[in-house]
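Ticket 4471: requesting a sanity check on a complex prediction with zinc ion. Repro inputs:
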Amino acid sequence: MEILQFSILILFTVVSFSCLQLSFHECCLNPFLQEHNSSLAEHVIRLANEPETVKWMKTIRRKIHENPELAFEEFSTSSLIRHELDRMGVKYRWPVARTGVVGTIGSGSPPFVALRADMDALPIQEMREWEHKSQVNGKMHACAHDAHTAMLLGAARILQQLRNHLQGTVNLIFQPAEENGEGAKEMIREGVLDNVGAILGLHMFNSYPSGTVASRPGPFLAGCGSFKAIIRGKGAHAAFPQESIDPILAASTSIISLQNIVSRETDPLDSQVVSVTIMQGGNSFNIIPESATIVGTFRAISRKNFYALRKRIEEVIKGQSAVHRCSAEIEFDGDGHPNLPPTINDERVYEHVQKISSLVVGEGNTELAPPFMASEDFAVYLEKVAGSYLLLGTRNEEAGSFYPPHNPYHTIDEDVLPIGAAIHATFAFSYIVNFTKCCHYY
Ligand SMILES: [Zn+2]
Ligand SMILES: [Zn+2]
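Returned structure tokens:
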């Protein structure tokens, strides 16, 4: 494949990167790699680019694209994944988080490393006319989760071929419901991260050209929080305000005071947002109601600021309600308005992934991405274990893949599929080799 740049580097390169400051020892070598006298990345890239494997990944992506399923409804997608894992002889657990699948490859013993793909589509009508257009009205894979699933199956196929040389275990996490922010939480509750030492997540992204990858150490994507506050007072005739405890007034001053958190309490160079988006209360011009409701969202790039904002929102609403003799109940993680923490890449795992990506796409094709205000439920995994999230460039004018995610014309460059499969597989294999044979990864 043209956009994959072949790198002739012995395993020493991969291992020495990951061992950080520690020197190379013979014990770093995996017998498989000694036998093959070639680098891990080289071998994996070759497997990822076998014409039959590329064709198979494209077919899977197209099948999933034709039949998009929304959050927690991914029954056909899940069935397709299980069918392919069965054909490969990969064991799996199912159902996990309703429609999720967790495959395992390797010895079944530690160390454990996890690779994650999301499976759900969006409630969008696909506008692009092509052979494999969505067959379901009003639903579409407009966030490339069809491609993410195909790439993780590609990695499974590669790792299954190397399974006898894996002295550890790879968990392949096929996760439902990324778009509503619930999938990762449910998967974690069902134990998919138990004993896992590191995790990798990839997302196709149209802002970067095909054949490039982009990421950054530390804070990467914003945390997305939401709140719903019910402010309770005492209703009365509006002509006798002295008989009331007015929740409308308490809600109004709460909204004004919430705007002071970002403008007066935070560093202007450190992006944060608090917005009130719904205000409800009362149903008549001459009745002071019993209660008023305000709903809003907050965003921050760092975990510290995200949780600080959440704490201050609660304090401000409760404080302002108390000033006006009302009480307030605040819900932060209710139905339809999930909270996602910021996506924070572990610096060491990021470095390791960065080196692997350079081997796969070539030195000079990896970019330091700026932080941005979108959110990802992969962040929930990163709160539990060290890991890294990576953007995989898929912008190619010829393929028409220049529309952003969540756009009805969105599509991807399918020639990028082997890159994602190779990065996934190389990361998992090298993590296990380093952990077991050389030095401690962390
Ligand atoms: Zn999305
Ligand atoms: Zn997405």
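Notes from triage: Residues 1-29, 438-442 have pLDDT under 50 and may be disordered. Leaving this open until the requester confirms.
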